[in-house]
Amino acid sequence: MGHTMTDLEAARAVAFRYLGYTARSVAEIERRLARDNYTEDVIAAVISEFTAQGLLDDSAFARNWLADRADRKRYGKGRLAAELRRKGVDRDTLEEVLETVDAAAELDRARAAAQQKWRHFVLVGRDHLFIQSEKRRCADFLLRRGFAWPVITQVLRELLANQD
Prior knowledge:
Distance between the termini: 75 Å
Strand content: under 5%
Order of helices and strands: HHHHHHHHH
Largest sheet: none
Number of strands: 0
Oligomer: single chain
Structural class: mainly alpha
Shape: elongated
């Protein structure tokens, strides 16, 4: 059979403890158990068991994780997608979850993030070059946070319109 019941029980305990700290993706649990040198059979058994019990669900994990990070960190879809890929969420699940991101909420998050960087008080009476560099600085900030260009240009347009 390959693995003893004690291996399976020990792996189950490690995975359960690891899940207790925070929600995890299937890939994160697999990596954690592999790090402790559990066999592929034992890892597969734990994953199968935890999935059947509803303890592991990459779709729910990705949705919850995305909602939390999007609002708390004010990240855009690009950054969120990259982080979920690093957590081992597969492409299909990722696409399914990203489709649920509301465009209006994404724009609101970009506006809120831009407010952190936009120094409108220093733009009054400044020349075109200074304003362009400020726009670029703000756009770069929003790009790093994972917002798409259409969202960024909309936010910059609004910020500039509010200058007057």
